[in-house]
């Protein structure tokens, strides 16, 4: 009976048959492209469905984008369709696609060159916060099947010349099919891509490959940038001639703070009671130079405008160089492991978490990072160590915050300022309710408020020897779930306003107010005046009375309020 029974079908008989014979590298490339189009592009398909609204509108768009995506992948991978030694490259492309999709799904970011450059600048503690079991599962879901297939498949050997002709033919066919599809549906494609520029950075992994080439490979063949000096002719102004006390100016560079979450700016929650109690001035309409630290920090310290900075072919000296050239004592204190992004390279600088007393470290630090108040620890000793000849003229101290860096917002505040509870206690933001996410972020703003209050108190304590003042401005904002977006770093052109509108706060001691003849009523009347990071360079030079050819009074936010008392 058993001999006459029909054979039981094997579940993997078809696959076993396919893997039994060697396959051409071209067929592997085509199969891999089809797989990635389906398995690694859910954010793209979801976005097309959101834009289109009705299935009759978005299904043709999805079909066309699928065709273009597959053809693009085949064209790119045709350059790798050679031998079995290309398997690690193919596997690397799959892993890249899986990781990019995870972050697009989790944080609603896109992998444009700016975002990739920001990722490459991320320090180890930030990387740890972005990892987790959810990422491992999402990556494994995409990677498992092609990893198994690449391990099983045998690549048929072929002469080099024959393989080259096949690859060239594959590239030509892919390009021709893509061109024909784009031409046939140009009426739908052109307005779609023109009105939704971000879609081009959602083509996965094409966008990641393009961005990697732009950020990592392209600079290898670019001309080396030279440093353009701008400090010539820099001198201190007349206010220094007969001064009785030198100025002490603190510039706090915030991190990931939103203007609309500052109580000073009308936010429904009182997140800034310490600043309000110290009668600071809050400028409510300030826009950042970029949507990530790597773009914003060098730009905001540059003498160039945002547009000129982004179009530059060479590097320029910055605000720190000019202040130092004037003869002032300059010091950059960083609580960001990622550092100053080159801004402080030519002036004295230090990391706040280095050489911290054990008693302070046990309170303010964990294994890999510290709360911002660590910058106040040993600050008197740091100031005393500056060159006496320069300090007698004046001091400029820059403090670079950890601020409200996400996604682990709960780590950015101490227990005694966690007024908004419960808060999100994980870096997997999708696991938290929106209210928990907002609570965690607002607690980080409340901690920044407390930190700035303590810096002002420290400055007031120095008023017997110095004329003190403070200016705080954040590097960029943050998305907290609006439009389904999280974190920051979207291309500036279509990033939401919350990633670009930042808080800026000033405080002046009596000595600095008298020194600059500042009119408070004049400054208060300009708190809603539109400003950008372009104004920072010129405003600081104006306050510090530093004369230099690059200073533009029209960009000095306080120029009209000085000398008016």
Strand content: 5-15%
The total of helices stands at 22
Order of strands in the sheet with most strands:
7-6-8-3-9-12-4-13
What's the shape? elongated
Taking all residues together, what is the mean pLDDT? 88
Largest sheet: number of strands, sense, barrel closure: 8 strands, mixed
By helix and strand content, what is the structural category? Answer: alpha/beta
Number of strands: 14
Question: Which ranges are low-confidence, i.e. pLDDT below 50, for 5 or more consecutive residues?
Answer: none
Structure, explained:
With 565 residues, the chain is α/β, with parallel strands linked by helices. The chain is 46% helix and 11% strand. The protein is built from 22 helices and 14 strands. The strands form four sheets. The chain has an eight-stranded mixed beta sheet with strand order 7-6-8-3-9-12-4-13, with helices on both faces. Strands 1-5 form a two-stranded parallel sheet. α3 (42-52) runs antiparallel to α4, α4 (55-77) runs antiparallel to α9 and α5 packs antiparallel against α8. The radius of gyration is 28 Å and the shape is elongated.
Tell me briefly what this model is.
It contains 22 helices and 14 strands.
């Amino acid at each position: 009976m058993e001999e006459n029974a029909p054979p039981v079908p094997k579940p993997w008989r078809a696959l076993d048959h396919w893997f039994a014979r060697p396959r051409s590298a071209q067929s592997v490339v085509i199969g891999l492209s089809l797989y990635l189009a389906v398995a690694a592009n859910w954010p793209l398909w979801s976005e097309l469905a959101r834009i289109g609204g009705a299935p009759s509108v978005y299904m043709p768009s999805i079909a066309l984008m699928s065709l273009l995506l597959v053809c693009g992948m085949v064209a790119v991978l045709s350059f790798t369709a050679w031998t079995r030694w290309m398997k690690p490259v193919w596997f690397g492309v799959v892993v890249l696609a899986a990781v990019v999709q995870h972050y697009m799904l989790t944080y609603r970011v896109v992998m444009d060159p700016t975002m990739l450059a920001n990722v490459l600048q991320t320090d180890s503690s930030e990387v740890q916060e972005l990892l987790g079991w959810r990422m491992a599962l999402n990556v494994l879901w995409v990677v498992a099947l092609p990893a198994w297939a690449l391990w099983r498949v045998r690549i048929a050997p072929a002469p080099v010349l024959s393989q080259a002709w096949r690859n060239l033919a594959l590239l030509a066919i892919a390009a021709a099919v893509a061109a024909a599809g784009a031409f046939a549906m140009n009426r739908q494609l052109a307005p779609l891509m023109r009105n939704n520029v971000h879609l081009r950075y959602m083509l996965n992994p094409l966008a990641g490959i393009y961005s990697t080439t732009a950020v990592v490979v392209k600079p290898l063949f670019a001309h080396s940038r030279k440093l353009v000096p701008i400090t010539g002719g820099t001198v201190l102004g007349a206010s220094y001639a007969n001064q009785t006390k030198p100025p002490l100016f603190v510039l706090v560079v915030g991190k990931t703070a939103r203007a609309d979450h500052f109580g000073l700016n009308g936010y429904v929650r009182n997140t800034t009671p310490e600043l309000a109690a110290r009668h600071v001035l809050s400028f409510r309409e300030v826009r950042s130079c970029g949507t990530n630290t790597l773009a914003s920090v060098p730009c905001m310290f540059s003498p160039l405008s945002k547009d000129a900075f982004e179009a530059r072919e060479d590097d320029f000296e910055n605000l720190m160089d000019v202040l130092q050239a004037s003869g002032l004592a300059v010091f950059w204190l960083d609580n960001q492991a990622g550092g100053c992004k080159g801004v402080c390279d030519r002036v004295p600088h230090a990391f706040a978490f280095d050489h911290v007393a054990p008693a302070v470290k046990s309170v303010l630090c964990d294994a890999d990072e510290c709360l911002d108040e660590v910058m106040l620890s040993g600050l008197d000793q740091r100031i005393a160590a500056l060159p006496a000849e320069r300090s007698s003229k004046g001091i400029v101290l820059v403090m670079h915050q950890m601020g409200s860096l996400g996604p682990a917002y709960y780590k950015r505040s101490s227990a005694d300022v966690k007024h908004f509870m419960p808060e999100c206690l994980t870096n997997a933001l999708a696991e938290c309710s929106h209210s928990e996410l907002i609570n965690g972020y607002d607690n980080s703003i409340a901690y920044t408020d407390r930190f700035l209050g303590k810096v002002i108190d420290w400055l007031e304590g120095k008023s017997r020897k110095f004329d003190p003042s403070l200016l705080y401005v954040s590097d960029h904002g943050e998305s907290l779930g609006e439009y389904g977006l999280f974190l920051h770093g979207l291309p500036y052109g279509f990033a939401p306003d919350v990633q670009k509108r930042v808080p800026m706060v000033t405080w002046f001691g009596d000595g600095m107010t008298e020194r600059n003849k500042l009119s408070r009523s004049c400054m208060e009347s300009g708190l809603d005046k539109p400003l950008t990071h372009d104004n920072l360079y010129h405003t600081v030079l104006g306050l510090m009375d530093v004369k230099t050819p690059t200073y533009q009074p029209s960009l000095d936010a306080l120029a009209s309020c000085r000398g008016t008392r």
